[in-house]
Each structure stands twice: as structure tokens, then as C-alpha cells.
Amino acid sequence: MTIDNNIQEEIVSIGAPSLKSAIEAILLVVDEPVTPITLAQVTNTPENKVIKTLNILQKEFENREGGITLREIAGGWRFYTNEHCSEVVERYIKDGQTARLTQASLETLAVIAYKQPVSRGRIAAIRGVNVDGVVRTLLNRGLIEEAGSDNESQAVLYKTTQYFLERIGLAKIEELPPVADYLPNMAALDAIIDENLI
Question: Which three-class secondary structure state does DSSP give residue 111?
């Protein structure tokens, strides 16, 4: 079975099977509401078509009566938990404070601890994966905090907290064991990362 050329071109230009799936995927990873014009640019789609798709998605989530809603807030769109699920979400967040960190969280925390202050972009470049969700988890648990912004890129920088030091039993960050024995030349690694971030 062959795919019509027009449909195939649309898939290539959007970067996802459909506009709806592309918008869902983007909204799942954002930290703040995304404007329709941004979604239009990212998906190579006219803004009016993006707005129509957002409205369709919003109605679908409302009709589902599930745990997620799609809302337009401050000129942008974002997924939120349904207010009817607030009790279970609150319980999960409280219980999650004592749950063990995932491997991804531990790796991200290690990068922040050794490279701080560091931006999400640099963390993602070092780990080779998107770290937005993990950074949110570490912020929520009080293990990291914002440490200003980068002078050049204006990206938010992150550092570990006093609570992090208490949890691992150190008085100051300088007491972390050296990692030089386990890593390649750090100056060379930084140069490679910087080249890829430009």
C-alpha cells in the first residue's frame, strides 16, 4: 500500500505522523504555555490550522474526562492535570519526595553537581537526551535550584542546594570525589559540547 505523495510530504515537513500528534508531543515536554505561532513555526503549518487543531484537541480531552486537560493560558497552550484529580496528584507528589531517584535523575544530578552552574542545554548535550522532565523533578524535590542566567544565551542556570549536600552527607560541594579518573579530558569534552550547542 503506497502513501499519497501529498500526505508523505506533510509528514516529512511536520516531523510527526500528523499535526495533532506533533502538537501533543510538543505540549508534553514544555515547561510553560506555547503560543500557536511557535507551534506553527515548529510544525511548518499555518497558524490558523494549528489553532483549529488545538481547539479540537481541547474538546477531545474535555470529552474524555481523563486526568489531563489542555488549556489556553496567557496566550499559550499547555497540558495540565484535571482539577478533579488534584487529591491523587497531591498525594503522589508528597509520596514522591521520599521515593528513590531514577537512573536518569541520578545522572542529571551528577552532571549538575560537577558542572554547576549549568544550563539545561549543556546538561542535555552531556547526557545526550532531553532533560526537561528530570530537571523539574529535581527542582520539585529541592535537590537543585536556579542559579541566575547565562550572560550570553540568557539560559537559566542550575546548581545543587544545601538540601542536596545534607542528603549526601557533605558540608560543601568541593568535598565531592573527583571524577577525572572516570571521564575523558574535560577540556576537550567541553570544547565538543560547546561546538554542538552553537
Answer: helix
Buried b (16+ CB within 10 A) or exposed e, 51-86: bebbeebeeebeeeeeeebbeeeeebbbbeeeeeee
For 10-59, write each residue's pLDDT tens digit.
444 788 899 999 999 999 888 788 999 999 999 999 999 999 999 999 99
Give ∠ CA 71-73-77 in degrees, rounded to 5: 55
Same domain, 48 and 11: yes
Going through 39-94 in order, the beta strands assigned E by DSSP cover 68-73, 76-81
Domain check: are 112 and 181 in the same one?
Answer: yes
Supply 64's cell numbers: 474524555
Measured at the CA of 21, the angle between CA 13 and CA 73, to 5 degrees, comes to 105
